[in-house]
Fold:
Amino acid sequence: MLVHSWLSRNVLPALAGLGVIVAATPLPASAQHAAHEHGVARLSAALEGGELLLEFLTPLDNLVGFEHAPTTAAQRQALADAAARLREGGRLFVLPEAAACVQRTVEIEAPWLSEVEGARGHDHDHDHEHEHEHE
Structure:
């Protein structure tokens, strides 16, 4: 799951903050066909107070090409690369420049990510918030 939160400094009060959640998870075999469709993702938006929350749900296959624990170096790299791209919320979800929003938090929830990044010496806990300033 990916969460991006931006806080506006001035111009658009309705867009004072932005959060994004991306969930990329495989499902049990019994639920896979009814629960999701490959090549399809869902993006939802909610505005509450000064924060806009975007939720992006997609099968893991859409991001890395597989929905099982990575078994090769290439698959582990694909998972790590996808997580790195998702952390760049300002590149994925572009708001009008007039909003002057600042990304505040990032959260990614995906199976096997902590194992892949732990093996590479990545010391982030992906259940916590990352503070980023984007201008």
About this structure: The chain is about 30% helix and 30% strand. The CA atoms of residues 5 and 104 lie 5 Å apart.
